[in-house]
Amino acid sequence: MTTSWPAHLDVGAVRFARPTARYDEVLVFYRDILGLPVIGQWRGHAGYDGVLFGLPGTPVHMEITQHGDPPRIPEPHPENQLVLYLRGPEAVAEAVRTLAARGHHPVPAANPYWPERGAVVLADPDGWMVVLAPWVFGAEPPPAVD
After folding, report:
1. DSSP 15-72
2. Quick one: pLDDT at residue 136?
3. 3-class SS at 132?
4. What one-character-per-residue DSSP string does 57-98 give?
5. Spatial contact of 23 and 64, defined as CB atoms under 8 Å apart
6. Residue 38 to residue 1: CA distance in whole angstroms
7. What is the Cα–Cα distance from 72 to 90, expressed in whole angstroms?
8. Whole-number Å distance between alpha carbons of 125 and 14
């Protein structure tokens, strides 16, 4: 298995996008509480509000959009996840403390894979899952299962 892009795909950046009906709360969660940098934001562009978050140290972006009156989004599903691979259990614990101080607490993981490896799962204001994993995917193996 390789963790690099194939030579025929000269990809310079990747964007993940998803809708929300709670734009302002989601913006606060990802920008102010998690601290992801906002690299672009718009309101009322062709009927859409949106924000682009840079995911630290990578050419990967996450886009959140709101559209419609009232905004309509698909129901959250526990397998819809943003996984943030942090540098060890101490980094996960620090992130959990920071989020808890802002009223966001861990939720049960739908997949036992995450807690078995020391990851913590939280829900954003839309109920979409944010996984804080204690290893850097592609740079080190996941922790062994006890």
Report:
1. EEEEE-S-HHHHHIIIIIIS-PPEEEEEEEETTEEEEEEEPTTSSEEEEEEEEBTTB-
2. 86
3. strand
4. TSSEEEEEEEEBTTB--PPP-TT-EEEEE-SSHHHHHHHHHH
5. yes
6. 33
7. 38
8. 24
Q: What are the C-alpha distances in Å from 84 to residues 40, 105, 119, 135, 139?
A: 20, 16, 10, 9, 14
pLDDT tens across 44-80, in order? 888 889 998 987 777 788 888 888 888 887 788 777 8
DSSP H or E segment with residue 100? helix 89-101
Work out the average pLDDT over 91-110: 94
Q: What is the pTM assigned to this prediction?
A: 0.80
H or E stretch including 122?
A: strand 120-123
Residues 73-100, mean pLDDT to the nearest whole number: 88
Residue position matching structure tokens 């709670």: 22
Tokens matching residue 21: 């009906």
Cβ atoms 61, 13 nearer than 8 A:
yes
The strand order across the sheet containing 48-54 reads 14-19, 60-67, 48-54, 38-45
Examine the pLDDT at 23 and tell me if it is beyond 90. Answer: yes
